[in-house]
Amino acid sequence: MDTTLSALFHSFVDRHVVVLGEAMLDSYLMGHANRLCQEAPVPVVTLSDRRDVPGGAANVAVNLHALGAQVSFLSVIGDDGNGDRLRQTLEHRGMRTDGLFVQPSRQTLVKQRIMAGSQMVVRLDEGSMDAIAPEMEQQLIDCLTERVPTCDAIVLSDYSYGLLTPRVIAAIAVLQANTPKLLVVDSKRLASYRSLGATVVKPNYDEACRLLAEQSITSATAGNTRSEFMAQHCAQLLDLTGASMVIVTLDAEGAVILQPQQSPQQVQAKPAMCIQEAGAGDTFISALTLALASQAPVAIAAELAVAAAAVVIAKEGTETCSIEELQTSLQNHPTMHEVTGVSVWNKEHEGDPSTKEVA
User: Fold this and answer.
1) Taking Cα atoms as reference points, which of 204, 167, 194, 199 lies closest to residue 180?
2) What is the rounded CA–CA span in Å between residue 160 and residue 341?
3) pLDDT value of position 333
4) CA-CA distances (angstroms) from residue 281 to 55, 147, 173, 226, 263?
């Protein structure tokens, strides 16, 4: 069997991923500023352009699509101009929008960033954050019931803006009991998903600390690195989330993989010039999910995810990482080629040189 990295990427196109979460519109209002306002000590930005891109769970969906996957994206938007713009941004990227349901009483979530050159001046957020209506819950559940049995993976992208209600989560639990799938959860309230027994949950460092109820990150680490601190709380994080695996992202330090009865492993980040970090976590979760769905070892999946995130943080604004860009970023990565050339399809792979054990 061909076990090269390109073979792994080729398998991405056969994967069907269901993404459920809050769709957002990321708007960039761009201009220049060369004077201060007379009414207040703030810059006057003269706008010259606008760029609308999918954000939130929609960004996860377009990243999966850019990496070659077949994507079923399920979300709820409002009957408004921002909802129309969001639908257009998805269709422009070749995405189906038949899973994007409209609740007339709801306002589409939007984040407007005012940019003066490359500098963000302010971000304006708007949109409904209360729970979706019961009829919207039912439409999502019906759609999940139809599409989950034939999918390879499910991604829950929860921004705590009212889409993943207790009823929807309960429906996912039933589906998982009947037809278990690779389930990846990215949420600011991971404890709410404990009953699902997710395959992977992906908190960032601050979210993991909040889950552990640590009030002071500095004093809590007691001189340890962030990965070491997470490693010390491996069992607790696994118990609190109910997941088979917790992968904590650590920004420029990469990520740490926590699994039961295994030594925590740290995946180092590739050096990259960070322009903006908007959406990097979405890219990480997309690459991770596709790699795991393609039977890559966990350490390799995490390293691919870190590399994909590095691609987007070097871009301006909310962006995606294409399969071609990910391949290019790994061309001069001897460790990755060495590992994948030997055992990329071996789930029981141990001793990956791509990872470093954390005491």
Assistant:
1) 199
2) 41
3) 55
4) 11, 25, 24, 18, 24
φ, ψ dihedrals at 53, nearest 5°: -140, 155
70 forms beta bridges with 16
As a whole number of angstroms, the distance between CA 111 and CA 124 comes to 6
Instruction: Summarize pLDDT for 12-41 with one digit per residue, the tens.
Output: 988 999 999 999 999 999 899 989 998 998
State the Cα–Cα distance between residues 246 and 262, nearest whole angstrom. 12
Q: Model-level pTM greater than 0.70?
A: yes
Task: Find the angle CA(335)-CA(341)-CA(344) to the nearest 5 degrees.
Answer: 95
Characterise 357 by phi-psi region: left (phi > 0), alpha (psi -120 to 50), beta (else): beta
Give the residues across from 26 on adjacent strands.
53, 111
CA distances from 189 to 34, 60, 139, 157, 325 (A): 42, 18, 23, 11, 32
One of 52, 158, 282, 352 is an active-site residue; which one?
Answer: 282
Predicted pLDDT at 125: 95
Residue 282 annotated to the active site: yes
pLDDT of residue 276: 59
**How far is the C-alpha of 242 from the C-alpha of 220, rounded, in Å?**
23
Q: Where are the domains of the chain?
A: 5-32+43-357
pLDDT tens-digit readout, 293-326: 999 999 999 989 988 888 888 777 678 888 888 8
Q: What is the pLDDT of residue 6?
A: 79
Q: CATH classification of 5-32+43-357 is 1.25.40.10, yes or no?
A: no
Which residue stretches of the chain have pLDDT < 50?
Answer: 1-3, 215-220, 334-335, 337-359
